Amino acid sequence: xxxxIVSALSGAGKSTALDTLEDCGYYCIDIYPSPYSKTSxxxxxxxxxKPMKKTAIGIDAxxxxxxxx
Length: 69
What we know:
By secondary structure, the chain is of the alpha/beta class. It is built from 2 helices and 3 strands. Helix content is 29%, strand content 25%.
């Protein structure tokens, strides 16, 4: 499985980059919230009946992980 992470500030062209990757055969997820584990995303993709070989996710560079309480 190939996983690309596209991260930048708002207005920098993440959606345009993901649109282009989608045209190239990638399954794209725009505005993926960064506090969620990327590992869980990869495992979810793997468990699908028809696994996606190429996946790209867009993350806003300003998102921060939440600290455990």
